[in-house]
């Protein structure tokens, strides 16, 4: 299958656009001017059900929707486009709106290490065991998710994290014996040609680092372009490369971003999964819970069951980040917990490898364990699944129950405490 991307410039050529009114197409154009927009022929032809596109999760997942902007911002851009305003003026307005959308959530710049006096801009190291690596060639995606917290990378250059040099990654890794995992991320590293994977992986193998146990690849490619592992010209080479890494005693894990069971139904994705498993690759799944996409327990239960049937290990349920079109997707923490529990309750033990719902915030990954009552006060029970300080992990703590809270920042300590147990140490770390 030949890859064909669509974006703001050519989406009107998509044959299925005939299902939309002129007004709906204009809405895509207006919102797509502010938020990054890109989709591809696989998503359009195989995932979206055009007979019911207004309700279709994959349409909401990749096509900009009017309600993703505040009404005022939407009208402002719409009127600029309708009156053929100058490019400069549009750009100025677009930037103003983008900067309001929290383009850099969870203080990601705090995760960039300084090594031998230099900031390593393509690396983030926040949790002791796992280093994130942002290869320069992998900072785009086959299609863009409308909820993505990486959106500034596609739209705002000054926030870009990326690195070309494998050497620096290897040196940093050698100097940090606690790191067992290197997680390739982006964007989507799977957009890289195999020869780039080869140069990075070979550098890691040649360095022969005994504490390196897992190479992980965070990717949406299974759902947006499964042909990366089947018919792309360098698909076979990529699988052989994974096999080689495995043979050298390093585990290869594909951290697959899978939002909805519909993504697992096509012949192409099932073949891709089988080929990866045959090459010895582990596949683990993760996804945020989002309104309009997957905000029902049954969807998650079906997703986990189908994943496990195909050999994929359910890994994380996330709470949607506080960035971009968050208002459009936000599910309250209380609701996220109910969805998690409702789904977890109806699957067998082998699906219960999943953790969540989890918020990736600046101090760490905070799980909503549940809602309970202590000394007459209704509380959220929380727990760090990952922490900037590993000693925070696994100690339950409490926040006042708030049915409207959608993110960690909305929460307050419960039971008369003046702060959460980790707060002082956390502020000290940032200082
Ligand atoms: C989620 C995340 C990781 C990986 O965490 P695991 O729990 O090991 O999957 C690593 N670094 C950062 C910054 C993360 O947000
Ligand atoms: S594939 Fe991943 S990085 Fe790319 S837009 Fe979607 S969520 Fe963001």
UniProtKB/TrEMBL annotation:
Named cofactor requirement(s): pyridoxal 5'-phosphate; [4Fe-4S] cluster
Domain of life: Bacteria
Ranges annotated as spanning the membrane: none
Listed GO MF terms: 4 iron, 4 sulfur cluster binding; catalytic activity; metal ion binding
Keyword set includes Coiled coil: no
Keyword Translocase recorded: no
Gene3D superfamilies: Aldolase class I (3.20.20.70)
Listed InterPro entries: Aldolase_TIM, Lys_aminomutase/Glu_NH3_mut, rSAM, rSAM_sf
Keywords on record: 4Fe-4S, Iron, Iron-sulfur, Metal-binding, Pyridoxal phosphate, S-adenosyl-L-methionine
Family: Belongs to the radical SAM superfamily. KamA family.
Record's protein name: Lysine 2,3-aminomutase
